[in-house]
Amino acid sequence: MRAHYHETSRQIVQMYAMEHVSVEALRALVIVCLDELGTSNGPRGWNLLTLLAQNARQLSLCEESSVFLSVEHSDDSPMTGSIRRIAIDRPQSWIEDEGRRRLAWMVYLLDRYATIATTTFDFMLDDTKMKRVLPCSYDLFSRDIPVETRSWGSSPDQHGAVGLVVNKPDNLGSFSYHCEILRILSKVHDFLKTPLDITSSSEMAAWRNTYRSLDASLDSWLRGLPGDYSKISALCHSDPASRVANWFMLHSAYVTAVVRLHSSAAYPTVRSHLFVPSHYAMQRCLSAVQSLSDIAQDVYEASGLDHLGPPFIFSLWVAARLLLVHAATTCCPVDPRIEFFIEILGHVGQYWEVADNYAKVLARVVQRGRQGDINFNAMRQSAHGLVTLAGSTRLTGIEPTSTHITSLSELDNIDVFDFFNYPKISDTVRRALSGQLQSQNTADSETPRLPDPESDWLGFTPQGS
User: Is 37 helix (H, G, I), strand (E, B) or coil?
Assistant: First the structure.
């Protein structure tokens, strides 16, 4: 009966949002979309996100509007394109205005997590169109205290950076910083989607510059967090309430961003003499995974996992898969911490079905790797080959098509390893360089590939290693 009411309510909200473009309908749709993404990151969730993003744009929620049009009561509302200009009234109070701002950022957050998980999709809300100032802390919002937070200029400088117009860090909260780290993660996602010629010295030099710039952005963001952030582990045992849980989800977002960026240099699927695994990048990934493991342990011991939602689940999923990618690259046994991540995901699966799905996929892959029938490196290469095959295109409309039958184990491999399928090589470059690229393959899978820190091609000195 509960499932029936849940499904019926979901359908009612969706139909209402289809026919009514309003702030109230959008709020309800956000809840439905979050619930769907907590069930599976699949087509139903993406369709809801499309509606969510489009309605947010129609309501002009992604910008700080100063003037709102209104039709005189004696006139009929237009049934043409101009109707979107009067779709929303001006906010009647600061708290209503801030509520809309937080709603816009929540749509942005859902779009980011769902899109980043796919590795190939484009964002539905472009960063250049997201012109909202950051939301304030929940404490100030709940007390209806009008404050300024942080906003950026509209014109980038010669280096592509956008300066701050307003900066009041004392008024920021965990949600504010979460939005900031997602803006950096968005840049990482777009950076890694761009095809790269890993045999070109000039392209690799430009790639390293962008990589270092994004790395510096992550470090700068971390340094800008308030002092209380360093105490969240202790707070967990004294106050595992939703307020503290927001800081845990913030930390998980940082881990996701670090792993997403640095795994590209630490564990490349395809290599060249200019692009090999980086010791610095590898250590950054492993340190981030360790920190998330520590935080998850604290939350688990404090019985606070029920306060954490899909963003935290996704970070656990990313961290666990990183351990499998590390095992595949170094040809070593998978880190025992993988069992902890599987256990935690299974536990959170009581509240969010997607976590249980992740746990089952990980358990199957780990079991197959330990049975010895196929090693993790071969699994990764299988996933890479299948994704490349599925992405192949025809040159003409009359070329024949074909079907390739895949097994559940092959789909598991894709689920685990495709997130780390980098660099992206264009079809033209792939054909031109066929046979020249140094690819990971099973022929030399018995030789560990631990990078030498003394000759790291990124030119970094590993921190704390």
Answer: helix
Q: Which residue matches tokens 């949002």?
A: 17
| Residue whose entry in the numeric block shows the structure tokens 């170094």 | 330
**Residue recorded with tokens 């900066």:** 167
**How deeply is 454 buried, as exposed, middle or buried, from its count of CB atoms within 10 A (0-12, 13-18, 19+)?**
exposed
Could you tell me the two tokens for 49?
Answer: 């996100």
| The two structure tokens encoding residue 223 | 């340094």
Contact 289, 322 (CB under 8 A): yes
CA gap 258, 265 in Å, rounded: 11
Say how many C-beta atoms besides its own lie within 10 A of residue 69's C-beta.
11
- Give the CA distances from residue 386 to residues 194, 348, 392, in Å, rounded to whole numbers and listed in that order: 20, 31, 10
Full pLDDT tens readout for the chain, 465 residues: 888 888 888 888 888 888 888 899 999 999 999 999 999 888 888 899 999 999 999 888 988 887 777 776 655 665 555 555 556 788 889 999 999 999 999 999 999 999 999 878 899 999 988 989 999 999 999 999 999 998 876 655 544 555 667 788 889 999 999 999 999 999 999 999 999 998 889 999 999 999 999 999 999 999 999 887 766 666 665 665 556 788 889 999 999 999 999 999 999 998 888 888 999 999 999 999 999 999 999 888 888 888 889 999 999 999 999 999 999 999 899 999 999 999 999 999 999 999 999 999 999 999 999 988 789 999 999 999 999 888 888 888 898 888 889 999 999 999 999 999 999 887 666 665 565 554 444 344 445 567 777 778 776 554 443
CA R_g for the chain: 23
Where are the extended beta strands (E) located within 18-172?
A: 150-152, 164-167
Neighbours of 347 (CB within 10 A): 16
The secondary structure of residue 170, as a DSSP letter, is G
Tokens of 317: 């999923």
Q: Are 189 and 115 in contact (CB under 8 A)?
A: yes
The structural domains of the chain, with segments of one domain joined by +, span 1-64+84-130, 220-229+242-391+406-439
Cα(232)–Cα(234) distance, integer angstroms: 5
